[in-house]
Amino acid sequence: MATAAAHRTARADGTADADAAAYEAVFDAAVAADERIEPRDWMPDAYRATLIRQIAQHAHSEIIGMQPEANWITRAPSLRRKAILMAKVQDEAGHGLYLYSAAETLGTSRDELLDKLHTGRQKYSSIFNYPTLTWADVGAIGWLVDGAAITNQVPLCRCSYGPYARAMVRICKEESFHQRQGYELLLALSRGTPEQHAMAQDAVDRWWWPSLMMFGPPDDESAHSAQSMAWKIKRHSNDELRQRFVDICVPQAESLGLTLPDPQLRWNEERVHYDFGPIDWTEFWEVLKGNGPCNEQRITQRRRAHDEGAWVREAAAAYAAKHSDGTRAADGHAGTVGGASAHQAGENGEA
Ligand code: 3HC
């Protein structure tokens, strides 16, 4: 049977002129056998383009997602909450790093991807175009937004593209911590004073529907799902994952003592799932077009942070150049000093 490993051997043998159909057959066989496709393996152009699109969108979501929460670091109600929130926001920067690195293995550069984000040619998740109005929003983001992210991203640990799948393993572990801190924060508010309980309920009311939209459009309007599932980039459809998320959240909301803002939410014995009300897809598409409550603020802040971080990137690049004569490894600075970390240093402040 043709495998990715066999394909690697073929390449090493110098059979680069083998016809595209043969390469494609090897690629298809590797995907069918659940092997990982690695950066130096042959892959269809459209597979590469789809991965760059999805991984870049994912990376952009991680770094834009730092803004709404960083907004609350200075106002966290205790030192413990502040330390937890700082760690979480820092994790998101790390997730951006892993994902930009994964995208770079496909032959694009981080500068190019950031330029596409800043000029509106690549997207980031719709969810981060909503404001964080109260402290309870930090809890609702952890519980619902990170919860939705985990539901969507755990299957990505089995994505057919190796670097993306491996990056997702660590990201999902950290997202689990984020989800739990959000749940614990909301539980404390829900069991607090009537005002605190009301604040938690208000946050859940505002974040519930946008969280359901994170999974993307319904399956019959999802342009990429069928092909991405055939390539095993995605393992489940948007609607399947959305349903899974609803089924997880209903009992958790009961434990929290909070209600989900959907009068049509009820258990369906036949489907063995919760039914839920219609999603406002007009709102979703408007947010994607740039007309959400915070689109302009988010991208303006991102561009400003990038510009203000230029000196850090220049300094790090100069430092890396100075030490590129082999002394880097010796003095313990091998790796990311002039590259990965420098790119995001100084870029993630909130307006
Ligand atoms: N926000 C913005 N755009 C979205 C979207 C969303 N929630 N859902 C779908 N879209 C866009 C798609 O990118 C596509 O547009 P394009 O052709 O211009 O790229 C269009 O809507 C049609 O959607 P499809 O269903 O055809 O797109 P996909 O097959 O790519 O599925 C997806 C969308 C489920 C979001 C998929 O891309 C995916 O699983 N991505 C990886 C996960 C990810 O990006 N998560 C970001 C969440 S936030 C996060 O992780 C941060 C953490 O800290 C919470």
UniProtKB/TrEMBL annotation:
- Which residue windows does the record flag with biased composition (Basic and acidic residues)? 322-331
Region labeled Disordered — which residues? Answer: 322-351
| Gene from which this protein is expressed | paaA
Which Gene3D superfamilies does the protein's record reference?
A: 1.20.1260.10
Q: Name one Pfam family in it.
A: PaaA_PaaC
Which InterPro entries does the record match to this protein? Answer: Aromatic_CoA_ox/epox (IPR052703), Ferritin-like (IPR012347), Ferritin-like_SF (IPR009078), PaaA (IPR011881), PaaA_PaaC (IPR007814)
Q: What is the lineage of its organism?
A: Bacteria, Bacillati, Actinomycetota, Actinomycetes, Kitasatosporales
Protein name, per record:
1,2-phenylacetyl-CoA epoxidase subunit PaaA
Region forming the signal peptide:
none
